[in-house]
Design goal:
By secondary structure, this protein is of the alpha+beta class. It has helices at residues 8-35, 40-48, 68-81, 83-102, 105-115, 234-270, 282-310, 316-341, 352-360, 369-377, and strands at 124-127, 143-147, 150-161, 168-174, 184-190, 196-201, 212-223, 227-228, 272-273, 276-277. It has 3 domains: 8-115, Orthogonal Bundle (Butyryl-Coa Dehydrogenase, subunit A, domain 1), CATH 1.10.540.10; 124-232, Beta Barrel (Butyryl-CoA Dehydrogenase, subunit A, domain 2); 235-377, Butyryl-CoA Dehydrogenase, subunit A, domain 3 (Up-down Bundle), CATH 1.20.140.
Length: 386
């Protein structure tokens, strides 16, 4: 039976995230975007409330929220507050997911407990992308050479969320380029190890509050005990991680779209032209109706993918559907919001231009809109119900 009821816990966590987004994140969003600086005070408050590590099991100090649907509810609210700040927080989830999926008990105990340390904000980063390996993740060339009880890593990563401010990195490297995807291996790397160096901070169109930078690895010695899984399992670990996290990107896109829609709807009822609110003109009313419908559809796709993941059912296609559609909706809805506000929407005094800038990255990171459609198309089989 299909139902859309939320549990008491889910409603409580969603409402907690909603209050935090409304009362703490949203008031600081414009300045954080303008200054392009990480709002550490807000991250500290989020950490104190458990919003950085609620998804990590209680055994390691986290909140123990295992449900991916619950995580989607929380992500929607945080991105409604500010996509840049939510992206920093999301970096913790992105980096901890491969450890949860493939880490040994010793690795989980050592690194997940650090992320959950109540005394300080500890951030993580997921280092996969390279200058010549973006959508083609199997084409990475960062090298990992085994030398006895350690690996030597050399390479360069780019566009890494939280690079330079993260304490813990999950780094993907190849033990043999000739093996392609089958040579890719994952490692846990600490920021203070010799040879680990963050590059320049990128200046971005949107999500400006988040810290995006390159990561250089020069003769970095990584203990073999810090390898995640076996040699050659890294690509699989990365793809399994994305099956989970793409749902949360989809939820974030819904949050951005909802923020823009709500503002445009309110404005359309207050803005008087030709003697009546512009919301009463069919051209605007139909735009608002389409925005509301698209947001609802994107949310339902996201919830389905999250629910499948919670049931431990295959969800790669559904996660890609949710991510691709929700990201497109975020771009369309924010663009329409700017249009509804007209000249005001184009001005930085009003928030819709920020949401439009933030929305674009949803179609790019964690797999572009085109890659999502490639994933979907490869799983379409004649004779099977959609």
């Amino acid at each position: 039976m299909i139902a859309f009821d939320l549990t008491d816990e889910q409603r409580e966590l969603r409402d907690l995230a909603r209050r935090f987004a409304r009362e703490t994140i949203r008031p600081a969003a414009a300045e954080a975007d303008e200054q392009e600086e990480v709002p550490w005070e807000i991250l500290q408050q989020a950490h104190q409330m458990g919003l950085l590590t609620y998804h990590i099991p209680e055994a390691y100090g986290g909140g123990g929220v295992e449900s991916r649907l619950t995580r989607a509810l929380i992500d929607e609210e945080l991105f409604w507050g500010c996509a840049g700040i939510a992206t920093i927080i999301g970096g913790v989830g992105l980096s901890s997911t491969p450890i949860l999926l493939a880490g040994s008990e010793a690795q989980k105990e050592k690194y997940l407990t650090r992320l959950c340390d109540p005394a300080k904000v500890t951030l993580g980063a997921f280092a996969l992308t390279e200058p010549s390996a973006g959508s083609d993740a199997a084409g990475i060339i960062t090298q990992a050479h085994r030398q006895g009880s350690k690996y030597i890593l050399n390479g360069y990563k780019t566009f890494i969320t939280n690079a330079g401010i993260a304490d813990i990195y999950v780094v993907f490297a190849t033990v043999d380029i000739a093996r392609g995807a089958e040579g890719i291996t994952a490692f846990i790397v600490e920021k203070d190890w010799p040879g680990v160096q963050a590059g320049k901070k990128e200046k971005k169109l949107g999500i400006r509050a988040s810290h995006t930078a390159s990561l250089m690895l020069q003769d970095v010695e990584v203990p073999a005990e810090n390898r995640l899984g076996e040699e050659g399992e890294g690509f699989s670990i990365a793809m399994r991680t994305f099956d989970i996290t793409r749902t949360h990107i989809a939820a974030g896109a819904v949050g951005i779209a909802r923020a823009a829609y709500e503002y445009a709807l309110s404005y359309a009822h207050e803005r008087i032209q030709f003697g009546k609110p512009i919301a009463r003109f069919q051209a605007i009313a139909f735009m608002l109706a389409e925005m509301a419908t698209q947001i609802d559809a994107a949310r339902l796709l996201t919830w389905r993918a999250a629910w499948l993941s919670d049931q431990e059912l295959p969800c790669s296609k559904e996660a890609s559907m949710a991510k691709a559609y929700a990201a497109d909706v975020a771009m369309q809805v924010t663009t329409d919001a700017v249009q509804i506000l007209g000249g005001y929407g184009y001005m930085r005094e009003y928030p819709v231009e920020k949401w439009m800038r933030d929305a674009k990255i949803m179609q790019i990171y964690e797999g572009t809109a085109q890659i999502q459609r490639l994933i979907i198309s490869r799983q379409l089989k004649p004779g099977e119900a959609s």
